[in-house]
Amino acid sequence: MDTKSRVPYQVGLDQEYRQVICGAISGQLQNDPAGLSPQSGFSDDFGFLLKWRKWQKLKQINEVAKWGREWQKGGDWSPHSSSMAQARLLVPAYIEFVRVMGGGGAFRGEREGLDLGAGAGCIAAVLQSVSTLRMTASEWNDDGLNLIHRENPDLPARLIDLTSFDDQQKWDFILCRELYPFTRVNSFTDQAEMVSRIVDALKPGGVFLLVGSTASFPHCADYDLLADTFRKDGRVRSVSSIFLEAVLVRFTAYRFLGRFGYVVTNAIARVLLPLVKGRKWAAIGVIAFQKRGT
Ligand SMILES: C[S@@+](CC[C@H](N)C(=O)[O-])C[C@H]1O[C@@H](n2cnc3c(N)ncnc32)[C@H](O)[C@@H]1O
């Protein structure tokens, strides 16, 4: 491949990511879609190392894309997406958490909510049924959209690839739960860019809930770093610390203890749960971002 026509390293991963994902979806995945393999030919050693690391990362993302293909098409989606029963446990916990963190306005009155990468759409459906949110469930490919239509036919669904999402001030509440671009690859710049796109898409005062696990650690987002980064972002009013989803679900009954109760219980659980559950236990963390009002 001609060096000049190759995608330069400086180009954000998201462009390459989309190329790779699209390649996987159409079944035309090349071994070296962006011309990044070390065999593609380049001159200096430093460039070699950078490209080698990038190539490794792309190979990982390819596999992530392929998982999506199989289960969305009509197989058993339950290991990849929350069921109705799980959604009924999670949704009240999320709503209470957002309220306690000061973002309850997102659930008052007629509001617009978006579940990005909604899987089968069960969480979006429950959110719509227990709150005043008008929910839209999104997936990033046609198979994903068809899955939402099959499992939750009454739910409005939209095609959105988070890596190119460009809504502006449209949503009061956005949920991203267990999205592969956050949970399966460690690529801070691209993950920060995705969060930034979501912040742009929120209306003033809107809330974004990022829920992500460390199941593939170290191949997952650095959630602490993301939270720290957006605490310094002028568009953002507040970013909570990371709360364990398991704590939020159990804590719904003790919400009268308020924010302090959440903080203390979470701090204790973050120390104790890994000891009780063992080293292979993967935490699912929840972070609430609130955009500044007007
Ligand atoms: C583990 S599932 C989570 C489904 C759902 N959010 C839940 O928690 O039940 C991960 C989801 O990420 C979606 N996804 C992967 N890449 C994406 C992208 N670039 N934009 C939007 N969604 C994406 C997949 O299609 C899949 O539905």
Task: Describe what this molecule looks like in 3D.
With 294 residues, the chain is an alpha/beta fold. It has two domains: 3-72, no CATH class; 84-291, 3-Layer(aba) Sandwich (Rossmann fold). The chain has helices at residues 13-25, 45-72, 84-100, 122-130, 142-151, 180-183, 188-201, 223-231, 245-251, 258-277; strands spanning 111-116, 133-139, 157-159, 171-177, 202-213, 236-239, 243-244, 284-291. Helix 1 (13-25) packs across helix 2 and helix 3 packs across helix 4. The termini are far apart. The model is unreliable at 1-44 (pLDDT under 50). The structure holds S-adenosylmethionine. Residues 68, 80-82, 116-119, 123, 139-140, 144, 161-163, 177-181 line the site of S-adenosylmethionine. S-adenosylmethionine binds at residues 68, 80-82, 116-119, 123, 139-140, 144, 161-163, 177-181.
Structural class: alpha/beta
Number of helices: 10
Whole-number mean pLDDT: 80
Q: What is the CATH architecture descriptor of the largest domain?
A: 3-Layer(aba) Sandwich
Task: Work out the number of β strands.
Answer: 8
Percent in helix: 40-55%
Q: Ligands bound here? A: S-adenosylmethionine
**Top CATH class of the largest domain:** Alpha Beta
Distance between the termini: 50 Å
Order of helices and strands: HHHEHEHEEHHEHEEHHE
| Oligomeric grouping of the chains | single chain
Low-confidence stretches: 1-44
